[in-house]
Amino acid sequence: METPSQQQQPPAKKKETRGRKPKPKEDKEAHSASKMKKAQQQQQQQQQHSVDEKYSQWKSLVPVLYDWLANHNLVWPSLSCRWGPQLEQATYKNRQRLYLSEQTDGSVPNTLVIANCEVVKRRVAAAEHISQFNEEARSPFVKKYKTIIHPGEVNRIRELPQNTKIVATHTDSPDVLIWDVEAQPNRHAVFGATNSRPDLILTGHQDNAEFALAMCPTEPYVLSGGKDKTVVLWSIQDHIAASTTDPAATKSPGSGGSIIKPGDGNEKTADGPSVAPRGVYQGHEETVEDVAFCPTSSQEFCSVGDDACLILWDARVGSSPAVKVEKAHDADLHCVDWNPHDDNLILTGSADHSVRMFDRRNLTSGGVGAPIYKFEGHKAAVLCVQWSPDKSSIFGSSAEDGLLNIWDYEKVSKKERTSKNPSSPPGLFFQHAGHRDKVVDFHWNASDPWTVVSVSDDCDTTGGGGTLQIWRMSDLIYRPEEEVLEELEKFKSHVISCAKP
Length: 501
Known about the structure:
The protein is α+β, with helices and mostly antiparallel strands. The chain has helices at residues 30-65, 127-131, 236-244, 414-418, 459-462, 475-478, 481-499, and strands spanning 66-74, 82-89, 93-102, 111-120, 142-149, 156-160, 163-170, 176-180, 200-202, 213-215, 221-225, 230-235, 274-275, 279-282, 288-294, 297-305, 310-314, 323-325, 333-338, 345-350, 355-359, 364-365, 368-369, 373-375, 382-387, 394-399, 404-408, 428-432, 439-444, 451-457, 466-473.
């Protein structure tokens, strides 16, 4: 990985947190602003002390809680992390692509990074080995494979399920960029280097689209939301159709098997061929922060925004909302995910610190959002939610409090629902506290059960950089209780027999 110049290196820039709108300073309010700043600094110090204390406790428990953990220090923060295709299976570990980014201060270019990750198999890593890591070091399990020089910082990465070598990225512009990461040349990220050329540009937004991005699980469709308050839908297939009818179009080098075909050179921009949207959907009154497809239908999708609304859309019936859920939360909504095992269940995460679960058959009550349940285990804005691919009732949530919580809604019993002081938030069964700053993204590994990659932007704690962690909780935590007790009983018997003279 490239290291920036050490001569008078300014700290990595801090990205403005979503949902917070900066206000201009006024001279007459300078005194009150100074008092407020001091109070905020004290609050931040208290929060940091709490995070550090929780981190120390967490690290001491790593050998007990985890089957495997890899800690990888990042020179520049990455605002997104995604698993790519599995490349190789071996006896003790598997090799898999990992997609990251480098959000720089301008001294070197912003990049999209394709890495190779060695994923250690279950019950292989030694307990003492996984707990002895250096927070400032890079992990031997993560190796940079290819660098793409990205036009602008990478805010979001999403892979196409039909071909995970194809990824979409969001930056601070109205366009969505599509990349065939295997066909793209490897670049050296040095100051002044020209940007890599995207394989396809999706146009249609009228203002910047920075975070809301999703790929359809059933068709090669892309969904985006932006500051223009719209949700935009594209089909990559539209570009393929246009390319295949053009006799002048030829196969680009290294694009064997790619669904991205070269354009005719007479497109909207010299930066790459472009495709127009299939639909533009209007219904939000503020910035759209996240979008998700229905797992069983390419024509149904949902979106959330700074207007505190959750909107369901059906492309078959028009560009207006199918259902609009107002006051889905008590503040801006940052994230949404649709359950791949049960398409009635939708998760949302918000600046109000909570995660809420909705049933699309009964979304509202009295004109406002009526979630099935509110999961309240974070102390700051929730930035990412995602259902587990391994069990229908499991999901994760990450937040600005530095925590990544794993929940099981089946564990929310009637007793827990009515209890005023539960020992832990109802439904919470695992808490990953390995990050010391806001956890901006995470992704379950569909090829390796119960394995998660997560990334934090560490600007507030270290002044720059980030932390990437790949981890898998001990299977004694999530396996059926009877099964675990039976195994522990066998272990106990074995220990007793070994202790006998």
